[in-house]
Amino acid sequence: MSDATTQPRSNTSGGQTIRPDEAAHFGKLAKDWWDPKGSSAMLHRLNPVRLAFLRECVDMHWGGDISQRHPLAGKTALDVGCGAGLLCEPMARLGADVTGVDAAPENTAAAAVHADGAGLDIRYIAGEVGSLDIGTFDLVTAMEVIEHVADKPAFIAALAGRLAPDGLMVLSTPNRTPQSRLLMIGAAEGLGMIPKGTHHWDDFITPEELGALLDDAGLEMGEPRGISFRPDKGLHLSADLSLNYLVTARYR
C-alpha cells in the first residue's frame, strides 16, 4: 500500500531547499494533478516526452533490451518533487521500486490515494529530500523542480547524495532565455495554460549553469536534449534547448 505518512529519520546534513510559498502554491493544485484537462494539463502533455527520454536513457545506462516491458525491474527509483505521482506511477509500471518525495503534504497524500486506486505499491514522503534518511537509489529524477528551490547547489548536492555509485540521474528544467520568458510565462501563464505564479523566469537555469552545479557535486552531465513545441507535432524531443531541456548525470 502507498504511504504518504512515512516519516524516515532526519539526516541533519541536508540543506534547506524548500521554499514554503512554492510548496503552498503546488499544494493547492493537488486535487487537480490527475485531471488531464485541469491545472496540470500541461504536465500531462509533457509526461510522454519525459518518459520517452527516460526510457531511452535507462536502456543506454544499463544496456537493457529496448523491447523489454520492465527495464527497471530490480532497480530502486526516487522522484524528487513528485507532485501527485505523474512520473512515479509510470516508473513503477516499468518495474522500479519507487519512492516519491515532495515538499507539499497535499501532493503526497493525493499521490498515495491515486496509486492505491491503481494497485501500485509506491512509497510517498512529504519533506526535504536532503534531510530524509532514505538511503540511495539506482535512478534519481527531478523533473521541473530545480527552478523552484531556494538553494540550487544544496539541492543538487542532496540529489547526488541519494544516487547510488553506478546510478543514473535524470533532470528537466526550463532554460533561461528570451523565448522561455515569452512563451512559458508571457503566453502559457498569461493564457491560463499554466497556473499563474508557477514560474519565475529569474530562477530558470541554463544548461551551462546546471552542468557546473552537477560538476561541483561530482557528477558528469550528459548531452542536453530540448523539449520543443510545434502546432503540428505538439511537445517533442528536439535539439532546440531554448524552452526546456532534459539531461542525465552520473558519477565520474
UniProtKB/TrEMBL annotation:
It is an enzyme of class 2 (transferase). One of its GO terms (biological process) is methylation. Its EC number is 2.1.1.222, 2.1.1.64. Pathway: Cofactor biosynthesis; ubiquinone biosynthesis. The keyword Coiled coil does not apply. It catalyses: a 3-demethylubiquinol + S-adenosyl-L-methionine = a ubiquinol + S-adenosyl-L-homocysteine + H(+); a 3-(all-trans-polyprenyl)benzene-1,2-diol + S-adenosyl-L-methionine = a 2-methoxy-6-(all-trans-polyprenyl)phenol + S-adenosyl-L-homocysteine + H(+). One of its GO terms (molecular function) is 3-demethylubiquinol 3-O-methyltransferase activity. Residues 1-22 are annotated as: Disordered. S-adenosyl-L-methionine binds at residues 50, 81, 102, 143. Keywords: Methyltransferase, S-adenosyl-L-methionine, Transferase, Ubiquinone biosynthesis. Residues 1-16 have a biased composition (Polar residues). InterPro entries: SAM-dependent_MTases_sf, UbiG_MeTrfase. Belongs to the methyltransferase superfamily. UbiG/COQ3 family. O-methyltransferase that catalyzes the 2 O-methylation steps in the ubiquinone biosynthetic pathway. HAMAP family: UbiG. This is Ubiquinone biosynthesis O-methyltransferase. The gene is ubiG.
